[in-house]
Amino acid sequence: MNLTGMVYRPPYEANSLLLQVTLGCSHNKCSFCYMYPDVQFAVCPMEQVEADIEEAAEAWPNVKRVFLEHGDAFVLSADRLLNIADSIHRNLPNAETIAMYASIQNIRRKTDAELRRLRDAGINWLDIGVESGLDSALQYMNKGHTAAEAQKQLLRLTKAGMDYSFNAILGCGGAERWEENAEATARLINAVQPHLLFLGTLHAEPGCRLYADMKNGTFRECTIGQLLDEQELLIRRLELDNTIYFGSHPSNIVPMQARLPVHKEEMLAIVRQTREQLRSKLEEYPVRGGEGSILSR
Ligand code: SF4
Questions:
Q1: If you take atom 2 of ligand 1, which residue's CA is the nearest one?
Q2: Atom number of ligand 1 nearest to Cα 143
Q3: Measured in angstroms, how far is the CA atom of residue 102 from the centroid of ligand 1?
Q4: Residue 1's domain spans which residues?
Q5: Residue 11, domain member (yes or no)
Q6: What is the chain's mean pLDDT, rounded?
Q7: What pLDDT digit, counting tens, does each position of 110-147 carry?
Q8: Which residues line ligand 1 (CB under 6 A)?
Q9: Which residues, 6 or more positions from 187, have their beta carbon under 8 angstroms from its beta carbon?
């Protein structure tokens, strides 16, 4: 069983079976993304997917969770996803959850009835790069959805009984709009009440549009101080009934895992303490790839 190209998965899928069903990302246009720069999107042949499932069943017969690769596997038609789920359940009888990355557009293209059928077939976890609730940031990041569209589609998922992770990025609004970004993103998160909130911090790698814009000054990134202010404001504005907060992404200045609303005050205190600790660095910019290590520098 081979996985083609770079393989990305959420950190909490470390023990899941990674099963390739597509190659690359059907959108592949987000201005900060460097995941599949030269990969032509393709759907894997069903025979290959079935052969991989059978091979996996021999090696790991007790798999409980399967994560479908690559960048937005939920782009597949409901029928194709149902066929894959059927093959997984026939070969891996202990598989409880089938998860994958999904975009807002992927959800929009499925009917309510299809979402329910997919949920009934065990597809019960989507990792969704919503990124922001601020339309100007979404437009610049070229996400292909507005905040209103994201809200509508995420509420459809909830109605279908499907759990998901709302992935948001601190710093999406840049230095001019960190405050607006925090307020708008918190509003959207509150409106949809996700099961899990996955928080990362904006950073750019050479080759993506954002990197070029940062270099030529078109996009002004947030300083460490602004990122901490944005994080504090975002958390302060969150009004959630029961959401897991997963903020341990290596890009984050304040790595944190918690549950909201119970840990809200503790989380705010940690952000404030971090600001104190980093007093001399607040005007600096996070070092790419080393943001989470700022505290130990
Ligand atoms: S949808 Fe995800 S994988 Fe595709 S371009 Fe955007 S960030 Fe990259």
A1: 71
A2: 6
A3: 9
A4: 1-128
A5: yes
A6: 94
A7: 999 999 999 999 999 999 999 999 999 999 999 999 99
A8: 25, 27-30, 33, 35, 71-72, 103, 129
A9: 133, 237
